[in-house]
Amino acid sequence: MSSTHPGSDPYLPGHGDASYSVRHYDLDLTYKVETNRLDGTATLACQVHEDLDSLHLDLHGLQVAATKVDGKQVKHTHRGGDLVLKKQFPAGREVRVEVRYGGKPRPVRARVHGATGWEELTDGVIVAAQPHGAPSWFPCNDRPDDKATYEISLAANPAYHVAVSGELQGKRRKGNATTWTYRQDVPMPTYLATVQIGRYSEVKHRGSAVPVRSLVPSGVGAKDLAHGFAQQPQMLELFARMFGPYAFPSYTAVITDDELEIPLESQALSTFGRNHLAGDWEAERLIAHELSHQWFGNTATLKRWQDIWLHEGFACYCEWLWAEESGRATVEEEARQHHASLAELPEDLLIADPGPELMFDDRLYKRGALTVHALRQRVGDETFFPMIQSWLAQHRGGSVTTEMFEAHVARESGEDLTDLFEAWIHTEELPDLPDQPARREPTHRGGLLGLFARD
């Protein structure tokens, strides 16, 4: 796709088009695991924002058989991931776009971010789309600020479990295939849509207000989950009390039979490798990290990739909150340890605009978390937690920027926080941590959970 599309994010040129939005995706898919063959029909409900003589969709590595607009076939071209429907689209019009396509899906490759999207496992499939992999499996308007609802049906070999970032509506066996149908009613950006296919069995975890489950490969039992994944209900309840209600009907962790270098976030679902069953703190913190993204990244999502610290800084801070709640270390200890580590590294990263090469740099995660900690220290717990709760409540299902966050916390706290944000996210040099730890109310229970104990 041409990098000249209006609204293309400079961090991800060639993806997405701001001249229209997608309100809903309906994906009817068939997949053959043995041959890595995907066939589908995608129906998109679109809202056109300006007069257009063509409409651009992102679709990589798959072949298009036919395209329709409002039920009538239209001409198209498809080159380099840019699917162009050639027709006049008046501003303000709602249109129904249908694309019939198929082929052997493969990851989308980019110089900066590597390969993301649909990828074959040893026996199954993983879809890790952040930031640019969604077009590897469905035609879309691939920009993070274009959030839509979804209905996804996928037919596959009955031996496999199909998991999707949505709620299961049912499954139906017909011949040599089982069709799984999912709905996602909370608006979702394309990069958070996922399909996971494997020979999984379901383990249900007790102790949460919403269903929490793990999908595990053969040979994995309850004892393997005890020191990490079995604690997900407690993590979810802690984050809900601190930051407001969990935004989705359920939460799923998929554990692939393959090892994965890093776990993967998607909406109401996270994906881990068998190596994350280790039961050590490194695995446990990542389980907490991915779960916390359901608030920071999925409930409220960045409008621009440059603002990724709003996701990763808070998710990293949630690791420290869980460390304190579980008795491993205090938040203050975690903050000072990571501040000391950052002080030994190059200070050439601007957190509020790191550039595409550094947007996933670990220094952004840790300094983003330190920014959250500094903010909490400045305003105190009685202000901080309600302030973050109102931030998420106001932007539930929406898109946000750093400027919006700065304005929100200044308004809610009644303080001028310009100097804090200037030092922590708008300047490369690492500032010192304040001497005093975050102000807290006395608790009757151990850890942070006592701050939010039920009556």
Automatic annotation (TrEMBL):
<dbReference type="InterPro" id="IPR014782">
    <property type="entry name" value="Peptidase_M1_dom"/>
</dbReference>
<keyword id="KW-0482">Metalloprotease</keyword>
<comment type="similarity">
    <text>Belongs to the peptidase M1 family.</text>
</comment>
<dbReference type="GO" id="GO:0005737">
    <property type="term" value="C:cytoplasm"/>
</dbReference>
<dbReference type="InterPro" id="IPR045357">
    <property type="entry name" value="Aminopeptidase_N-like_N"/>
</dbReference>
<dbReference type="Pfam" id="PF01433">
    <property type="entry name" value="Peptidase_M1"/>
</dbReference>
<keyword id="KW-0862">Zinc</keyword>
<dbReference type="GO" id="GO:0043171">
    <property type="term" value="P:peptide catabolic process"/>
</dbReference>
<keyword id="KW-0031">Aminopeptidase</keyword>
<dbReference type="InterPro" id="IPR027268">
    <property type="entry name" value="Peptidase_M4/M1_CTD_sf"/>
</dbReference>
<dbReference type="GO" id="GO:0070006">
    <property type="term" value="F:metalloaminopeptidase activity"/>
</dbReference>
<feature type="domain" description="Peptidase M1 membrane alanine aminopeptidase">
    <location>
        <begin position="232"/>
        <end position="424"/>
    </location>
</feature>
<dbReference type="GO" id="GO:0016285">
    <property type="term" value="F:alanyl aminopeptidase activity"/>
</dbReference>
<dbReference type="Pfam" id="PF17900">
    <property type="entry name" value="Peptidase_M1_N"/>
</dbReference>
<dbReference type="InterPro" id="IPR001930">
    <property type="entry name" value="Peptidase_M1"/>
</dbReference>
<dbReference type="GO" id="GO:0008270">
    <property type="term" value="F:zinc ion binding"/>
</dbReference>
<dbReference type="GO" id="GO:0005615">
    <property type="term" value="C:extracellular space"/>
</dbReference>
<dbReference type="InterPro" id="IPR042097">
    <property type="entry name" value="Aminopeptidase_N-like_N_sf"/>
</dbReference>
<protein>
    <recommendedName>
        <fullName>Aminopeptidase N</fullName>
        <ecNumber>3.4.11.2</ecNumber>
    </recommendedName>
</protein>
<dbReference type="InterPro" id="IPR050344">
    <property type="entry name" value="Peptidase_M1_aminopeptidases"/>
</dbReference>
<keyword id="KW-0378">Hydrolase</keyword>
<keyword id="KW-0645">Protease</keyword>
<feature type="domain" description="Aminopeptidase N-like N-terminal">
    <location>
        <begin position="23"/>
        <end position="192"/>
    </location>
</feature>
<dbReference type="GO" id="GO:0006508">
    <property type="term" value="P:proteolysis"/>
</dbReference>
<dbReference type="GO" id="GO:0016020">
    <property type="term" value="C:membrane"/>
</dbReference>
<keyword id="KW-0479">Metal-binding</keyword>
<dbReference type="GO" id="GO:0042277">
    <property type="term" value="F:peptide binding"/>
</dbReference>
